[in-house]
Amino acid sequence: MIKKGDKKIIRGWVMYDWANSVYNLVISSAIFPIFYDTQSKIVYAENNNIADWKDIPEGTQVTIDFFGHQLSNSVIYSFVLCASFLVVSFLSPLLSGIADYTGSKKRFLQFFCYLGSFAAMSLYFFDAHYAEISMISIFIASIGYWNSLVFYNAFLPEIANPEDHDKISARGFSMGYFGSMLLLVFCLVWVQVLEYEAKWCFVFVGIWWITFSQFTYRVLPMNVHGKKPKPGYIWRGFRELKLVFKEFKQTKRLKRYLYAFFFFNTGVQTVMLMATIFANKEIQWPKGADTSGLIIAILLIQILGAVGALLMSRLSGKIGNIYTLMVSVLIWIMLCIYAFFIKTPAEFYTMAAGVGLVMGGVQAIARSTYSKFLPSTTDSASYFSFYDATEKIGIVFGTFFFGFMEYMTDSLRASVMSVTAFFVIGFILLFFVPKKEIELKSIH
Prior knowledge:
There is one protein chain. By secondary structure, the protein is mainly alpha-helical. About 75% of the residues lie in helices and about 0% in strands. The chain has helices at about 5-30, 30-45, 75-100, 105-120, 130-155, 155-160, 165-195, 200-220, 235-250, 255-280, 290-320, 320-340, 345-375, 380-410, 410-430, and strands at about 65, 70. β1 (about 65) and β2 form a beta hairpin. Residues about 440-444 have low confidence and may be disordered.
């Protein structure tokens, strides 16, 4: 058993945000997208007899060979991420049922943490000349990172009382932003001051992720509810998931909240995943400028993201979680519309500041809101797998739609504007989330 509110356990749980967020920043948002874009341009220049990739005319659609097709590098990136999220959305519900039945959430958390860490380190060998093979690393790293979060998030309702969920969730996101920012600054010094190769940053991500996650593993219990699985636990785990799903279908507030979450979070995650590629291609950076301006914007987002998570946590205490989410989503809608028109670095920094303030807040409150809405249960991993599957299926739609819109229109700006629709639908659906839940009849 585990005692709710234990400060040592809560500190250990929060440390996993500190550990894993470096993947989301360095790999998903900052260093890798720029590294990948540069690698793609080098290959494109070689294939088109251009002496230096920096001489590629501005506005050129950079394409590379991918399974015999010449595709935009950003289209390939979005489709690979889309495929990884499909795998995650399929795996997480199945594995969570097994984890709940056997009491092995911690083991699954460790497995996917190590899988993602080593896959991140393997990006050291990334080569756009062999895009099909190289993209396997980003595909597996994405699966490791996102699947680990299913089991990590599932501990929140078990380590803390509902009234503390907003505060603890926000603290985790804030710790993640600060920790990842430290490694990003180190990577910037490594690349721009010491002039070492950027690919070493991917190795640092894996080492950081594994090292700091040990603080989490040291305090989280192995089997919270003392479950004793019988032989054939895989099929029993599937049965457990089926029972939880039947119980889940009885909920009204939780179901309606997930519908809204599907749409607004699809918008959030798509913007976060594709923002760097958009800025690198669409913003008119000064001629000959390096990527430092873009990195500064990303750091700004991280700082304000940490602040925003804490501010949204306080706001939710005053006006409630749903109204806080509605305020956040409304700001996201305005930011997407603004992004369609921006062209200069100054305009991009203004948008980055706005994104930072609502990015951490909407993620932290979305997680804690779901945790608060859960019925009393020992199957938290199974319940959070529905949350996670909803999130990943949404990202599949978002990243595929983003890439498809660019493919059809040859315009990243059209892709960004199309994301606005997800936020609008999510905002509307939040109006229909009931304030209270009916009492559930346990069918276990």
